[in-house]
Amino acid sequence: MADDLAKDIIRRQERLKAGRGVFESHWQEIAELVHPMRADFLGPRTPGEKRSQKIFDGTAGLAAQNLAAGLGGSTGIRPRPPARRRSPPWQKKSERR
Fold first, then answer.
1. Up-side HSE of residue 27: CA atoms within 13 Å toward CB?
2. Cα(97)–Cα(85) distance, rounded to whole angstroms?
3. 22 sits in which H/E element
4. Cβ–Cβ under 8 Å, residues 32 and 39
5. Which of 17, 53, 13 is nearest to 36 (CA)?
6. What are the residues whose beta carbons fall under 8 Å from the beta carbon of 52, sequence distance 6 or more?
7. Smallest Cα–Cα separation from 33: which of 7, 57, 49, 6?
8. Average confidence (pLDDT) per 10 residues, the chain, 97 residues
9. Are 51 and 36 spatial neighbours (Cβ–Cβ below 8 Å)?
10. What pLDDT does residue 34 have?
11. Domain locations in the chain?
12. Whose CA is closest to 61, among 52, 72, 49, 48?
């Protein structure tokens, strides 16, 4: 039974990998324009290879940064509020702000 489950999982993984193979070349092209230093979808690059030759404008990279910032800001995780300024305990209440 465990062998059948393992074989089913492996077959499913192979089927999914074959289905996404069509998109890998598209992802590679997009990555070369948006973030060329991390564009290694189709395998490792040769050392010293020029990677930023396809970039003609920085718009795609800036848009990716803005998207990441927007998605990160909408996750619901908020930074701590700034610390409140307190008066020293020896100060009279009438003198406090």
1. 11
2. 9
3. helix 2-34
4. yes
5. 53
6. 36, 37
7. 57
8. 91 92 86 80 76 80 88 71 69 65
9. yes
10. 85
11. 2-67
12. 52
